[in-house]
Every structure is written in C-alpha cells, then in structure tokens.
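Deliverable D2.4 — example input (structure tokens):
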C-alpha cells in the first residue's frame, strides 16, 4: 500500500499560508521569481481611501459596474442556496449570466461561491458540486479555465491570487481539494486528484529576519500536473514542481521535486518508488 502519514495542514482559507514548506522547494522559488506576486488582500480590505461598496466590487466582482453588482446579488441571493431540482435548474440558467463563458450541460450545486466571475470559463458537461469555491481573483491574470467533462467535488477550493488555474478536459477533482495559484497551475487531461489533495502554487519568502514572513514578498513558479496522473488523498504538491504524464503520487506524499513521466512517487518528502511500466501482474495500487 502506497500510504504515508499526511502532513498537518495549517493553511488559512485564502491559502496565504500552508504546511511547513520544504527547504529544497522554497530555495528554488526564492532564487527564481515569476515577477507576478499575489494580491495583498488584507491591504485591499482595509484601504481607508475606498468605500466599502468599492472594495466589495473590487474583491468580489473584479469590476466597478453597478448593474453587474445588482445582477450578481439578485442571482446569488435567490438561487445559490436553493436545494433540489429547482435549484439545479435555476443555477444552470442564471449562472451563465455572471460567468465569462459556460458550455452546455453544466451543473452547479448549492452554495457555489463565485469570485471575479467574468474570469471564470467552463466547458461542456461539467459538474461543480456543492460548496465549491471558484475564485478567479486578480488584477492582471486570465483567471480560471475549466475544460469539458470535468468534475469538481464538494468543498473544493480553486483559488487564484493574481494567477491562473487551468483544469483540462475530463479531470476529476475529489472532495475537499485545494488548488491555489499565484502564477499558473495546470491540472492536465484525465487527471485524478483524490480527496484533500493540495496544490500550493505560491510561497512566501523568508530571507529577512527584521520583518514577519507575512509581510515579505510572495513568489510563484507555478505547478504542472500532466495528463493521466493520479494524485492520492492528502498529497501535497509544492510550488515549482512538474509532475509528468501517467504518474501516481501516493497518499499523503509531499512532492517538492519534479516527478518524471510514468513514475510512482511516495513519502515525505516524495521519492521515486517505481516505474509504472515495470509493475508486474495486476496493476492495483492503493493511494
């Protein structure tokens, strides 16, 4: 069984801090900056020069249009929470009025949260389950793109912080997953993210000792999880990592280095365990 003890996750809901970063991954991040730091949400919230309404529009909608605000408030207030078939029907008809692009046969569960909705693009035959957060927040980013045939499980958070998230066709994202991007995070075609998987697409610098880490520069190199890969439950993939095609990441693994195509990686930190093409007999792996 490819199973390891999952790391304790102390991250905040906005993804501003996460599990203790490894030395190797953070060192590489601080040496190569993407030049695309995440938005400082706290400063935006407490900016005395802006009215509460202006801050709400900026943080929630990403635009200043009063008409779009009214439309957003009416739709989310009256249909976001509705249970049953009626709720599913109304959200399928009304949410496309808020989003950048929505394909055919898209299902929205109850209490789905939309942030900067015009930067959210969704393909055909997609399921967004209950309590999912779709947050495309950013000033210079493209936002959140979800391909066709994708399933996003209950309580999952897809959070951009001036970065982009791309979920390619037929990806399956399990319950309670967290994908955070301060530059670019891509989940490839036919990728399976098991429950509680965490993709940490950004980090804090910590080289200065005269100020708290919270106030130091943030950086991001991005994450690539390539096609046909299976990421086990509670696995964590750090910023700057590329996971190749057709890989398996064991449950609870902490991935701080690249994983080549076809490899099985397990452990804390994750190490290459085997090449999938060398597995003899029935290829059944518990992750």
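Example output (designed residues):
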């Amino acid at each position: 069984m490819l199973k390891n003890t999952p790391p304790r996750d102390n991250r905040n809901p906005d993804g501003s801090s996460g599990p203790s970063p490894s030395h190797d991954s953070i060192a590489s991040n601080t040496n190569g900056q993407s030049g695309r730091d995440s938005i400082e949400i706290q400063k935006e919230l407490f900016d005395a020069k802006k009215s509460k309404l202006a801050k709400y529009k900026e943080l929630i909608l990403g635009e200043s249009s009063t008409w779009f605000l009214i439309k957003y408030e009416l739709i989310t207030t009256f249909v976001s929470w509705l249970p049953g078939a009626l709720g599913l029907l109304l959200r399928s008809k009304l949410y496309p009025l808020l989003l950048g692009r929505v394909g055919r046969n898209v299902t929205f569960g109850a209490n789905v949260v939309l942030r900067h909705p015009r930067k959210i693009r969704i393909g055909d035959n997609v399921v967004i389950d209950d309590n999912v957060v779709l947050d495309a927040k950013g000033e210079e980013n493209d936002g959140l793109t979800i391909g066709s045939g994708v399933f996003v499980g209950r309580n999952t958070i897809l959070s951009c912080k001036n970065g982009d998230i791309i979920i390619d066709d037929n990806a399956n994202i399990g319950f309670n997953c967290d994908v955070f991007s301060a530059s670019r995070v891509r989940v490839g075609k036919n990728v399976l993210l098991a429950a509680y998987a965490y993709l940490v697409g950004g980090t804090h610098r910590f080289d200065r000792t005269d100020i708290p880490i919270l106030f130091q520069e943030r950086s991001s190199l991005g994450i690539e999880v390539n096609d046909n890969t299976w990421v086990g439950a509670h696995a964590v993939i750090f910023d700057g990592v590329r996971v190749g095609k057709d890989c398996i990441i064991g449950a609870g693994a902490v991935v701080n280095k690249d994983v080549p195509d076809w490899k099985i990686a397990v452990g804390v930190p994750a190490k290459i365990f085997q090449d999938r093409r060398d597995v003899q007999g029935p290829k059944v792996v518990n992750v």
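The radius of gyration is 19 Å.
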